[in-house]
Amino acid sequence: MMSTTKPQFVWMNGEFVEWERAKVPILTHALHYGTAVFEGIRAYKTDGGLCVFRLIEHMRRLKTSAHAYVIDLPYSENDLCQATTALLAKNEIHDPAYIRPIAFKAEGVLKLDYRKVPTWVAIAAFPYDKYFEKEGLDVCVSSWRKTCEPSVVSLAKASGHYINAVLGKVEAAQNGFDEAVFLDHRGFVSEGSGQNIFIVKDETVLTPPLYAGILGGITRDSVCTILRDRELTLQERDIARGELYACEEAFFTGTAAEISPIISIDRRKIGEGRPGPLTRLLQKLYFEAVSGKDKRYEHWLTPVYPRTPTKAAAAAPAAVSPHKTDWTRLQGP
């Protein structure tokens, strides 16, 4: 859960601003029309100190989302990465944290054509633990369908999209469930309100494809990479609603949700009604990756408090930046 202690500073439009002074005008375009793109990013404790998980990939997606919606982004990916680590350090955050960068259309004219409205960019960061309070989730299939193409740019993480997610989440909560699963416009499984979904059947891990209206999650991509690296069978394909009831395991993935086991869907028990063995294994492997314990994934980590280099290290040739991730390998938060 989010810490009740407010951070001292946020980063806004290139400056560190005190939390209480980080305000936006009432006629902010994004407040009225949802014209904003954002990211959710996590930082974890490692033996080398606090590290941000897959920071560059998140900032690349922010830039891609902005481009898709014709929102000018006045900062480079590198600028935003440096601002993020500097903000965490300035707020003296050493515990696991959540980071929220957002680019939004600010005050201007209240017209739908926002091209001339200035873009503001802000980053907030605060201590953060768990998104779900429960270990195993009871979920339902939402009566609402996932908003997807050709109505919106599904792969963009845009604020306006999330009114659809709110409908599903609130409906689920009103009916006593922890979370909702959306179907796409064709009736196939899409995703949760803010998470991607995986199911396990006959020793095969299944997850919906990008064209099912999903957001190409950074955590989803991380789990897919871990599965492939261990030569476990993974299929990205359409999943029928009925397959949810016949699966042996199910789980959500997301930056905030991490890997969250699903133990029932529409009041039908999944497997033994508790987190399954593969889900437990993936939770363990994912934690090893985000905490720096699995050296194969060190390139996914950006240190917030870099260690002072030794004389020998300082004299050595500069290494290739670990953040130059091949964008073509990504599935899309």
Specify the helix fraction band.
10-25%
Would you identify the regions where 5 or more consecutive residues have pLDDT less than 50? 310-333
Cα-to-Cα separation, first versus last residue: 19 Å
Beta content: 25-35%
Assign the structural class, choosing from mainly alpha, mainly beta, alpha/beta, alpha+beta, or little secondary structure.
alpha+beta
CATH superfamily of the largest domain: D-amino Acid Aminotransferase, subunit A, domain 2
CATH architecture identity of the largest domain: Alpha-Beta Barrel
Q: Give me the Rg, rounded.
A: 20 Å
Strand segment count: 17
CATH class of the largest domain: Alpha Beta
| Number of domain modules | 2
- Series of secondary-structure elements, N-terminal to C-terminal: EEHEEEHHEEEHEEEEHEHEEEHEH
Mean pLDDT metric: 91
Number of helices: 8
Shape: globular
Main sheet summary: 9 strands, mixed
CATH topology of the largest domain: D-amino Acid Aminotransferase, Chain A, domain 2
